[in-house]
Amino acid sequence: MADKQISLSAKLINGGIAGLIGVTCVFPIDLAKTRLQNQRNGSRIYTCMSDCLLKTIRSEGLFGIYRGAAVNLTLVTPEKAIKLAANDFFRHQLSKDGQTLTLVREMLAGCGAGTCQVIITTPMEMLKIQMQDAGRIEARRKLSGQRCGGGEVKVSLVQVKSPTALQLSRDLLKDKGIAGLYKGLGATLLRDVPFSIIYFPLFANLNSLGSRNADGSAPFYISFLSGCLAGCTAAVAVNPVDVIKTRLQSMTCGSQEDMYSGVKDCISKILCKEGPAAFLKGAYCRALVIAPLFGIAQVIYFLGAGEFVLSLLSVQKQ
Q1: Is 282 helix (H, G, I), strand (E, B) or coil?
Q2: What does the alpha-carbon distance between residue 9 and residue 299 come to, in Å, rounded to a whole number?
Q3: Which regions of the chain are under pLDDT 50?
Q4: Measured by CB atoms within 10 angstroms of the end CB, which terminus of the chain is less buried, N or C?
């Protein structure tokens, strides 16, 4: 991802470390994004990101904003490893005698990376969304029977009883087989492939701007800002598909909330009942998640954490 030449092993370690740190920092915003995207007109509980986070903390406790984080923290390392390794592989295959890749070839490499990563991304997102949205569903059920005279809503503590990721996995495998974990695969491809097509070429071109270090690599702040800007741009561009994916992968809905049979059915019902603006739900949350996540990835690459870990392992073996 950066100009700095590092080994594949170090690159995979870097990706894993960046993913773990990034998820820990921005996961609460991702939870708000999921809940905002899933609520329909007429069943609104949250008005914005800050309102969602405050209500979640108030009703579910501080750890409520990290509901589902364990799934991401477990699977983010292989996800980043596949994405980075695939992009590196396709860029190498598409390059001619070490020459700079054209924009089209950079986009093709990103397309290949996005296609490969859904092997991990789809089940990870499937499990994460069920756990993130459990609090919203429970809150809606509680509030539906608590309207007093004059239409006021009496808010009480929400006791969220959501299954663990292992229980969800076991139930899905038992009822629907491996296909249960890959529900929404088509929508995930429609999101992740365009994201990678936009992100990787945009980052590479932004990272080539500005001054260079003595060794020819990009300065830390250039890589950091390039990662943030490229990630933010790609995230907002594919947000409509992210809304569709989130709705399709949600197995439990509140009363009077639609279920969807596929991508076309989801698009049709959202347009009919909520209008085009619904496809931008959670866009700023997603930008706030992705921008620092990829900015952090560039920090890890700049610091060379993967190479440092490998050097420690080699010393211990000696």
Answers
A1: coil
A2: 17
A3: 1-3, 147-158, 308-310, 312-318
A4: C
